[in-house]
Predict the structure.
Amino acid sequence: MNLLKRIDNIFFGSLQNHYSRMLEKEVVNCKSLLDVGCGFESPIRNFSHKIDYTVGIDMFENAIERSRVANIHNEYKIGNVLDLDKLFYEKSFECVVASDLIEHLIKEDGYKLLQKMEKIATKKVIIYTPNGFLQQGEFDHNRLQKHISGWEISEMRALGFHIIGINGCKKLRGEFAAIKYHPKVFWGRISLISQLFTTKNPKYAFGILCVKELH
């Protein structure tokens, strides 16, 4: 079993944690970062130590405490993400990131969030979301896990974002980004390989990393 794991890592190790790796490339040169809706296991956890100053905001105290124990951010704030402009000064962070968040908001609130993020950032605004609407219901009795809106590549580009395809072929994944087909180990590896194509061809990707450079 250990030999198989080593062989698997040789061939597929560099393709794992695709979103985290792509996000790191975009933010690692920023000196400060605001993580909006950070939850308890933010994707920046693997590289937050490379950024001088990071702050996580979430409305759930339990998520904040778990993230604090993991020492992901320098500071934390409990609050509603739609109150960003009341909680943080304009141009107070070089980069503002929202991962797996905007699809949980109605469209009107999603656009408001984007505007507030742009007011706070000086260099970059980054959004990660499924590629278009992805049906997802409640999980673990948490109604906030439900997806309410979908965000298309065309509309994000119209808002000034450039797009990177994330997590491989869209057709291979479903709710919570889980592989849809069996055997999952096989199709999971096919998904990893497909990243080599979908990263630069986001139309076919499961998720989209949307990056807006501010001038």
